[in-house]
Amino acid sequence: MARVEGAGVRSGTWRRTLAGTLIVQAAILGIAWAGTVLFVRAQGSRALSRTILDKNVETAQSLAAAMAGLGQGELEYGSERWSQVQDMIEHLDLPAGGFACLIGPDGRVLCHPEIRTDQSLRELNLGAEMLRMGNGRTVALAEVSKPYAVPGQVRFSVDGVHYVAAQHIPAMNARLLVHQPESGLASVSQAAMSGVGTLGLATGVFVLGLTGVAVYRQVRRHDRAMDEVRRGLEHEVHVRIGETLNARNTLIFGLAKLADCRDTDTGRHLERIADYCALLAGAMRGSYPEIDDAWAEDLRVASSLHDIGKVGICDEVLLKPGALTPEERTRMQRHTVIGADTLIAIRGKLGRDALVEMAVSVAYSHHERWDGAGYPAGLKGTEIPLAARIVALADVYDALTSARVYKAAMPHEKAARIIREGAGTQFDPKVVEAFDKVEAQFASICERSLRDSQAAAESAPRLAA
């Protein structure tokens, strides 16, 4: 009887403890809900503003680089260069009413999304409007001289406050302005944050109810399970991170191969490029502090994306067996900008990531030359990112030693001689020095790939039979 009464006392104590726990949790959840709603709204609004303004800066820099690649000299309204720039601005897609325009040295509007239909915009002079920067200083838009995007705020006389990223394009003696109206930014922020309170309240009620059901069953097992969780947690985190990175890299490489199959006759082009880049990075390790295991692995994956922009080039240009016309060559060269823009858009969704950053620089700059005669931006020497300088050599070597429908494969010796002759003009001399160190491995990879291709070609009729 005493045992039963003792059990009843313990049961009553447990119920009171449970009830007290639920009351305390309800109070904590209520306070946390109110504080979280206020905090999330404030932080979310600021984060959204920063994200959109960062997007303006990225867009300005990307557009300016693309425009700089269209040639030198002031832009004349109605010219072919003007049409190319106007097309870029008209096809730009920014959230919440954002847009871009270009003003000439006199401050008048040169390009605007609506200038083809509203000629009065050509008379609009924005040069005297003042850009207020984050440090409190102001500068007239016509006097912006930085060759990189400068963010700030402008109170336009025609339609109020805009958040603007302004950048000088020396090649055109023009200023690029990427706008985000304050009204559009406010509406996006309000829409994004709407429902946070309701969602938070619903979540709190749900969590409280779930806690009431689960706490009785779980609290007694908590201490025993906690030790096991602590032991396994660190191992599980490492496993999950490894699986996620492997899945990401595999998916990236698969998508790159899907794009590459439009332009190459062999299925191992990207694997060879990755192997060549790994050899060069290994030979250069020690000369460049940034080259470590993680950097080299990122380069293997990023190199596969060097020509991802070719998915945006039409087949009649991409697959043309003969020489390209000047117009076709210009269209082909756009694949660097298309690829970089695509990866920049991915970066905007994914956030800062070392692999994506490297892939952007490789896609954009792998056709730049050490002497500055490359494209799309005419970068010179160490202005070209190191990863892009490595991929440039690997890509040219593979193109020379690979057979295409319009040419035979070049012997390794001849290709190696061309690579050496390009040191200091087409290629970074230090990358060519690294090539000299691993030339035998290059030749081995090339030879093995050729044998595999011949074996596949010889076995094809028997497989068909």
What does this structure look like?
- The protein has 465 residues and is an alpha+beta fold.
- Helices cover 61% and strands 9% of the residues.
- It has 14 helices and seven strands.
- The protein has helices at residues 2-68, 80-90, 182-193, 196-260, 269-284, 293-303, 315-318, 326-333, 335-350, 354-365, 386-401, 412-421, 429-437, 439-464, and strands spanning 99-103, 109-111, 130-133, 138-140, 150-156, 160-169, 174-181.
- A seven-stranded antiparallel β-sheet has the order 2-1-7-6-5-3-4.
- β5 and β6 form a beta hairpin.
- The protein is flat.
- The chain starts with a helix and ends with a helix.
Helical proportion, percent range: 55-70%
Low-pLDDT residue spans: 1-5
Return the average pLDDT rounded to an integer.
Answer: 81
Radius of gyration: 30 Å
The strand line-up of the biggest sheet is 2-1-7-6-5-3-4
Helix-strand topology string: HHEEEEEEEHHHHHHHHHHHH
Largest sheet geometry: 7 strands, antiparallel
Secondary-structure-based class equals alpha+beta
Give the helix tally. Answer: 14
